[in-house]
């Protein structure tokens, strides 16, 4: 227990020392207005908040998130494959991918993947 506390304190003080040294040795740049302003996805933070937003960009972003979540749901199937039978594991994975492919086909058929204006 004492060794673990000592290691945590050592890591804490080591990281504190590295941050202190890097802030002392860092090149001090002249700050201008553009570098200090926040950048929010290409929008001007000082402009109007009522600018039109591209619906196509939003749909592509949502489709990307769906397939990103799909990957995170498929990865645990490999770990679970050791606990359940191969037929159950394969059927679950194929069923899940089939649902996603049908959804992708529907999005493609509806024209949500077309980027032209």
From TrEMBL:
What molecular function terms (GO) are annotated for this protein? NADH dehydrogenase (ubiquinone) activity
The record lists the membrane-crossing segments as 57-79, 86-105
Q: Which UniProt keywords apply?
A: Electron transport, Membrane, Mitochondrion, NAD, Respiratory chain, Signal, Translocase, Transmembrane, Transmembrane helix, Transport, Ubiquinone
Q: What is its main location?
A: membrane
State the reactions this protein catalyses. a ubiquinone + NADH + 5 H(+)(in) = a ubiquinol + NAD(+) + 4 H(+)(out)
> Which cellular components does GO assign to this protein?
mitochondrial membrane; NADH dehydrogenase complex
Provide the E.C. number(s) assigned to this enzyme. 7.1.1.2
Q: Where in the cell is it found?
A: Membrane; Mitochondrion membrane
Q: How does it sit in the membrane?
A: Multi-pass membrane protein
- Which Gene3D superfamilies does UniProt cross-reference here? NADH:ubiquinone/plastoquinone oxidoreductase, chain 3 (1.20.58.1610)
Range of residues in the leader sequence: 1-26
The record's listing under Pfam families reads: Oxidored_q4
**Record family assignment:** Belongs to the complex I subunit 3 family.
What role does this protein play? Answer: Core subunit of the mitochondrial membrane respiratory chain NADH dehydrogenase (Complex I) which catalyzes electron transfer from NADH through the respiratory chain, using ubiquinone as an electron acceptor. Essential for the catalytic activity of complex I.
The protein here is known as NADH-ubiquinone oxidoreductase chain 3
Organism of origin is Palaemon serenus
Q: What is the lineage of its organism?
A: Eukaryota, Metazoa, Ecdysozoa, Arthropoda, Crustacea
- The encoding gene is nad3
